[in-house]
Amino acid sequence: MRYIFLLLVVAACTQQRQLTEQELEAHRAEVGTWHAERIANLKAPNGWLNLVGLHWLEPGMNTFGGDSGNALVFPQGKIASRAGYFLVKDNVVTLVVNKGVTATIDNDTITTRTIFHPDSTRAPQVQVGDLRCNIIKRDTKLGVRLRDDKAEALKTFTEIERYPIVADYRLEATMEYDSTRTIEITNVLGQTTPQRSPGTLVFEYQNKTYRLDALEEGDQLFIIFADATSGTETYGAGRYLYAKKPAGNEKVILDFNKAYNPPCVFTPHATCPLPPRQNVLPISIRAGEKSYGAELHTVAN
Questions:
Q1: Residue 297 pLDDT grade (very low, low, confident, very high; cuts 50, 70, 90)
Q2: Lowest mean pLDDT: which of 8-12, 112-116, 188-192?
């Protein structure tokens, strides 16, 4: 009996502290605020709902416009049939606009402008009517990311279905630091690059221990993970989660109620990173966002 009593005491001491009703209410409000900001960001000018194209550039001249004869075919009715060209030379991209086409950068009308240079920290956005574009670089590839300020997805977007907010999925994790470690991250294009990982997050759920490798973004940890719901209740290519970077041995709060869908759920023109193999959890994380719009699940290629 004494042995059983001691086991119960140890188990009670190692369980995560139960939140009070006031704390539970505060947690629900916090997740609600986070979700509202998440929806606002999706709809924002640089959100994912207005992304309507991703066109990869080749060395030399890349013509663009609404005509199907262009190297880069933009939405018809939104731009001139022959609007101009992107010139790619030595990883520098210069935009040349045809006569009669009005293009602006930061409200300044342009006819020709270098819009990407390997040493630049920012690629400017070019506005032509309702369309905006900028250059992105993925590994060795350069592409034109195209947005439509009046995209149909902005009109048809509906609320993202979520699991109920459950405090049991707000878990404490311990950070195992490794300042020299990198992990291989593959994106939907099939490109794999080593990325620095500050360490591994170790947490317990239902008396079992699990591990997730984290990436670093400023003062945040970025976690790309999949679980047993991926491909059925949630997006098949996993979900994302941010957590505050700890100071020293401080615990990390992993709140899976804030797990959210990658951009590829909303547009086929995103270049989402995929969960590394070690971040595929064998359990069901029924918290956070569920999948959205099955017809949109075709990823960019």
A1: very low
A2: 8-12
| CA gyration radius, the chain | 23
Neighbours of 108 (CB within 10 A): 9
Tokens of 70: 């262009």
Report the pLDDT averaged over residues 100-107: 95
70-130-140 Cα angle (round to 5) = 50
Per-residue pLDDT for 25 more than 70? yes
pLDDT tens figures, 198-245: 999 999 999 999 999 999 999 999 999 999 999 999 999 999 999 999
* Beta strands 60-65; 72-73: pairing state: parallel
Sort 20 into a burial class: Cβ within 10 Å, 0-12 / 13-18 / 19+.
Answer: exposed
* 183: nearest Cα among 281, 247, 274, 282: 274
What is the total residue count of the chain? 301
- Which residue ranges make up each domain of the chain? 51-150, 161-296
**Separation between Cα atoms, residue 58 and residue 216, nearest integer Å:** 32
What does 161-216 look like in DSSP terms, one character per residue? PBPPP-GGGEEEEEEEE-TT-EEEEEBTTS-EEEEE--EEEEEEETTEEEEEEEEE
CA distance 128 to 18: 55
* CATH class of segment(s) 51-150: mainly beta
Q: What is the pTM of this model?
A: 0.86
How far is 225 from 275, CA to CA, in rounded Å?
5
What is the structure's pLDDT at 293?
A: 75
Give the position of tokens 């550039």: 57
